[in-house]
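Readers outside the structure-tokenisation community will struggle with the description of the input data as it stands. I therefore recommend that a typical entry be quoted early in the introduction. An entry of this sort, consisting of the sequence and the corresponding backbone structure tokens, reads as follows:
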Amino acid sequence: MAGNLKQLVADLEENAALQAVKQRLAEGEDAAQILAELREGMNLVGSRFETHEYFLSDLVMAGEIFKEAMELVEPHLKHGAAAGGVGKVIIGTAKGDIHDIGKNIVVTMLKGAGFEVFDLGVNVPPERFVEAVQETGAEIVGISALLTIAFDPMKETIAALEKAGLRDKVKVAVGGAPVTEEVRKYVGADLLGKDAQQAVEICRGVVRGA
């Protein structure tokens, strides 16, 4: 069981996956290797979502498994190992909106894919996104919204990045149930993530220079 962690995560076997993590840590296995297998499992979950084998509820379940497993693994990781070095992403729900379920799924999936994620939370004002880019040097900014009233704050955030001289240094991705291609154009974003797995793929594209 302990040797099949990737499959346990992919199959949403919560108890068995967490037990496998505990067992392998107790046996002194490399925490970074365990983390790599957890991420491989999350990649499989993402693939199953793309092929409609899994649904949103399955992504939520996988996210919970990964989060619980990370709580076990992180104390054993060497500093910086959790980030994975894939890329840095700032993410937050736009000002005026306090919904975070979709954002949280994206955060978990991105972490599972090896990104270093800076989650700013909800109701995030434009200036906080600007500060976060300045503080972290992240190359991707993700702005989420579930309410249409957040579209203008999205636009204001992108304008604030431009005013701060940061617009050409980052790619801005937007997402959320009401966010369409027309909304993306309206707010001035570069990319649209229609779901969590697509968000991961477009972030991978950014760091690959695609």
